[in-house]
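JOB MANIFEST
job_type = single_chain_structure
chain_count = 1
residues = 228
[input]
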Amino acid sequence: MTSPIRPSRSVVRDDPLRPDPGFAELYASLPDATDLWPWKDLALAATPPVLYLGIGTGRLAVPLHEAGVTLVGVDSHPGMLEALRRRLPDTELIRSRIEDLNLGRQFDLIIVPSNILCLVERLRAAANHLSVGGTLAFELTNPYWLQAGASHGVRVQSFDGNGARFKIDYALADGRVVTQQAEIPLVWPDEVENWLATGAGLRLRRMFGREDAELAASPSFYVVAARG
């Protein structure tokens, strides 16, 4: 009796200081996003260009570009930017860690469709690039969702009130399974308004969960903030 063939597995990490080539390869292999909410609506209503922090390999940036959004992209991973330059050769792309970013200009809208603004140093650097009256919109992993055990494909390894470690499994079209290891500080929805004000002098405009979920049950939640 033959043993079943198991899919090959590999593990990648998101490490801005020591970029993992496998992390960029994973994201380059994922299909482009088809659901552009809420980023498309926010971007089309803003004065261009839109600053996109953590732009990655373009799974969201390329569809936004095709929808008519002019972007300036920032990422710390050289492999991510190399892949994206092949797809968007005319888009301005900058390699930098967010906490070190100093573009010398400001933007009407900054979008961050991932959890990378969970550190106050990054939040402050993003706020420094926001024009008066401008909007900073970003996504955060929901601690309530992790506390409840997350969902299939996300394995919580440790959790306390301040941080969490977990693994995310991606089943790729070629049969491989790639696991991303993540360790993040937690920003609780209840604390966001004060965190924005004290950390970066920002004012909360809106906070909401995904379209199909209440805030407490949403895997991530969205924060829309303004200066002053």
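[summary]
Residues 197 and 203 are 6 Å apart (CA to CA).
The first helix runs from residue 21 to 29.
exit_status = 0
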